[in-house]
Amino acid sequence: MSPGHRVISASAGAGKTYQLTLRYIALLAAGADPREIVALTFSRKAAGEIFDRIVQRIAGAAADEGERAGLNRELGGERDLGRADLVGFLRAVLRSVPLLRIGTLDSFFVSVLGAFPFEFGLTAPLEILDDERSVLERERLLRRLFAAETAGGGIEALYEDFRDATFGREEKDVLAQLTASFDAGHRVLLDVPDARLWGNAPAIWPQGSDWFRPGDPEIAESCAQANEALAGMKMNAKQREAWTRFLDAAEGYHPAAGFEKKTEDFFAKLLALYPELEQGGPAEITNHRKQELGQDLCPALAAVVRHVMRCQFALRLKVTAGHYGLLRRYEKEYQRSLRRHGRLSFDDLRLLLASGPDPLEREGRPVLSSRGDDGGRRLYIDYRLDGRYRHWLLDEFQDTSIDQWKVLANLADEVFQADEGERTFFYVGDVKQAIYGWRGGDARLFDEVLDHYRDRIEVRALSESWRSSPRIMDAVNGVFGALDRVPGLPARVRERWARHWQPHSSAGPRRSMAGWVELTEIRAGESKPERLRKRAAWVAQRLRHIPPQATRAVLVTRNAAGAEVVETLRAEGIEAVWEGERRITDCPAVTALLSLLQLAEHPGDRFALEHVRMTPLAAACVTRSGSPRGAAREVRAGLSTRGFEHVLREWAGALLEEGRCHRDPFTNRRVGELLEAARRFDAGGGGGVHDFRRFAEAYRASEAADPSAVRVMTIHRAKGLEFDAVFLPDLNDRDMLKDRDGGLAVECDDDLERSPRWVLDLPRRLFVEADPTVGAWQQRRDREGAFEQLCVLYVAMTRAARALYMAVEPPPRSSSTVVFADVLRAALGAADGGGDEQALYRDGDPEWWGDVEEDAGSPSPEFVERLIDSSLPERRAHRLRRRTPSAEDETAGDAGRLFDRGRREAAAYGTLVHRMFEAVEWIDDLDPAAVAARAGAGEASGPAGRAEAALRRCAENASARALLAHPGGTAEVWREYPFEIVHGGEWVSGRFDRVVVRRDGAGAIARVLLVDIKTGATPPEEAAARYGRQLELYAEVLARLTGLPVGRIDRALLLADRGQGVRVGGPESEQE
């Protein structure tokens, strides 16, 4: 009997992966085939961990009776599993590896689209675009869009849409404006394709809006009425000046320009009084001192306020409609030139599956099914994906987006409609760790899906931590179990948190583990960077006392703070590494190489030329090519034949290896990352120098994480990790109460469909909060943001296993914001005195590290691999330099050589010669004409005739004939034998023209003759010097393949046009 449907809410450290692993084994124990189980998560690392845990748990229980007994207790089945059962499970899992569905949601979506390409409108194989390639494709798409609109006569309409969408934000860089507009709005368009919902006042205010009240007088009339009422009021000169300034500005108000600061502050006071003004008064305003506003003044002021608000919202409606027109044009070109051809972003995967082939036309979209077709809309995934998917396990469900759920929803419905036990549905997560709302995660789904299936699904909550010590748990309970103490935190946010909160405790051996928690208030300087540096110095002081075998991390909320912390720690003598992604263009060596590329494509670019001349690269240019311009010509020729990685590796070597540039670890790492970017660019189809420069500018790289160093990262990056000691110095800078302002607001129904109601490009918060409808949307968004910020703080604190160090600034005298420091201070303690440093909370053993294992800091295999990859760019563990030995004798020329007829004929001739010699096993009893026919030489004239003549010359010349003759004894010959091998840290690709293998009496390889065939007029006396390195590399590869020492591999060149053989290398080298 299969286990039933289940939801597990597992707090931090409670073992989400452990529970998913146990569920998987329970399904196997109930008789499920592993190929019937789908286990999906959000990252490849997490998917790999799930698979590893499943195999380890089964293997461990099979090998150890105690583990087996523990597993049986947890499974609670009708009978205990024996060793034979577990061995059978292990065999079933491992034999099914190619067909297992343990992976990421995105990989599952890729497989579905790959199985149903035509149903989703794809006309070419899938290609997933990475971030860097997406930047290039977007620019190309914009160029195509402008060209198409110009050719079709639609450029004026495009300009109108652009002008409306950017009204009031005129900038010089039109491309930057367009790019920003598409970045912000494209996803919104795909979610809301209906034009009637974009900037449509009746959709936003179905009952009407007070700002658009019909019958309001003209603004000049309203201002005149207000001035008339004010004239009869007693006030001082400053008060009257304030009224005059405001009414003059209101009469000439334009929303794109807005008010100046003093006037806007005055308007904000009137806006807050609008309900009283609209009712006809009286009202009271503070204008230097309090003033009573009578019933003769209030109606006129209310009309003035409505006018300003009407202007603002009318503009935003127009801008929103302009956005739609612009985005729709962009989407149509995107659909035509990218998506339809299978070139997809990860967002596109979810979009196509959730919306159908055309995201703008969603009628009759297909849905996924495990039960076959019922009228044409269901896609039978079991049939196309070659599986029978009966059991679904979803990890980290709180991070699922609504698009992802829409893809899976029908599959889940089918599971719940099946007979009990036949199919099962399981998800695990923790709403308190929902920190990815900014990239689409919808934590509300966790509860909504549960409510949808409430009567058919079992719920279990876990709050015991197998990670953290009791001291950490006490602090976590103190903070998150008493949020009612935090002033200003909205009640609805506290109530939502309380629904998911249970007091935490330590589990198992963690109950007796020593721990330490410290909250310290540090007074610092005036500037934000200075204050952060002082807190980072406090972190460094604490770190000096912690032994290096303990894992230590500093978690921050912002990338900029992370860079500042790393710099300060290193200045304090603490080895630290930043684990966030950084641009690779922050290195002078990289920018010099990019300028050389720019000069290659644009020889007249004096900025690029002078930049190269100012760098050590200039000396390499002079030595190798005579001048920077000469080097640029060589680079241009090389790019056209060999690609960016090959050319950049050559010039990076000249810059670094020949001592022209200081080769410190940072420069080594950045240059290696540039070469990796070049490899990816070439592999993705390449492009011109402009495209590569944009690709390199967008490319991000991260440093290897040495466990012996202090790891600095964002809290988001730390999710899923744990450390012995965690430091939180960046707790004062993010207001929890206000989510980001502006942008496109999308109002949706509050159900599992999330059907959109309206879209509006928001004005500033002052205007938004004054409107009941749009203000209600903003309040919900702020509450979602505040809840997510609580989740971020929770994740940060629960990364700590043994020790948690937190540093905060003193609170301001008055503030309307709530930051992390306020939450901690309210729960754990407030300062009671002065001083630059004051302890607010301390609990536990400050020397907690006594039982930390001594080998905890030894480098892991993963770290060693990453370290090699980052510090030795030319010898990569898994990002290998491509090398083709046969290309190493080529010399670069100008681009004209590519179109030279003689060069093309020579290439055709060389191909025929190699085909002809491939047809020769042994030269004995050779019939050159028959060989030529087998080689497909065709007519005995031109290249074909020359190739046959070369073969005849070699058959008649003793030195050449000796290389082609049977050597006697037991021998075999390999002809045109291709190989791919990792050799010397490089991926070497090539083809042996001819290898003669001689075997001894036992059949073992005794000696090898390597023959490389060359065309052309190279004199025999020069051949060895010219091709010797290529043959040496071939011999090294052959040694790897045959197991022979290099000394037993003879090397020779067959100069086909001269009909001569030349022995190369060793004491027997000779010209025969």
Output the keywords.
single chain, 1072 residues, alpha/beta, Rossmann fold, seven-stranded mixed sheet, globular, disordered C terminus
Write a compact overview of the structure shown.
Its EC number is 5.6.2.4. The chain has 1072 residues and is an alpha/beta fold. Helices cover 48% and strands 15% of the residues.
- At the fourth level of CATH, the homologous superfamily of the largest domain is P-loop containing nucleotide triphosphate hydrolases
Number of structural units classed as domains: 5
Major β-sheet annotation: 7 strands, mixed
Radius of gyration: 36 Å
Which stretches are poorly predicted, pLDDT < 50 over at least 5 residues?
Answer: 855-879, 890-900, 935-939, 1067-1072
Helix content estimate = 40-55%
Strand content: 15-25%
Question: Structural class of the helices, strands and pairings?
Answer: alpha/beta
Oligomer category? single chain
- If you consult CATH, what is the topology of the largest domain? Rossmann fold
Termini separation comes to 81 Å
Number of helices: 38
In order across it, which strands form the biggest sheet?
Answer: 17-20-16-21-24-15-25
**Overall number of strands:** 31
- CATH architect. name of the largest domain: 3-Layer(aba) Sandwich
- Overall 3D geometry? globular
The first-level CATH class of the largest domain is given as Alpha Beta
Mean pLDDT across residues: 86
What would your notes on this structure say?
This protein has 1072 residues and is α/β, with parallel strands linked by helices. The protein has 5 domains: 6-122 and 356-462, 3-Layer(aba) Sandwich (Rossmann fold), CATH 3.40.50; 130-337, no CATH class; 471-581 and 708-849, Rossmann fold (3-Layer(aba) Sandwich), CATH 3.40.50; 582-701, no CATH class; 885-1064, Lambda Exonuclease, Chain A. 48% of the residues lie in helices and 15% in strands. The chain is built from 38 helices and 31 strands. The chain has a 7-stranded mixed sheet, with helices on both faces. The protein has a 6-stranded parallel sheet with strand order 3-2-10-11-1-12, with helices on both faces. Strands 26, 27, 28, 29, 30 and 31 form a 6-stranded mixed sheet that branches. A hairpin with a 7-residue loop joins strand 22 (744-748) and strand 23 (756-761). Helix 10 runs antiparallel to helix 14 and helix 23 packs antiparallel against helix 26. The longest helix has 40 residues, at 298-337. The radius of gyration is 36 Å and the shape is globular. Mean pLDDT is 86; it is low at 855-879, 890-900, 935-939 and 1067-1072. It is an enzyme of class 5 (isomerase). This is DNA 3'-5' helicase. It catalyses: Couples ATP hydrolysis with the unwinding of duplex DNA by translocating in the 3'-5' direction; ATP + H2O = ADP + phosphate + H(+).
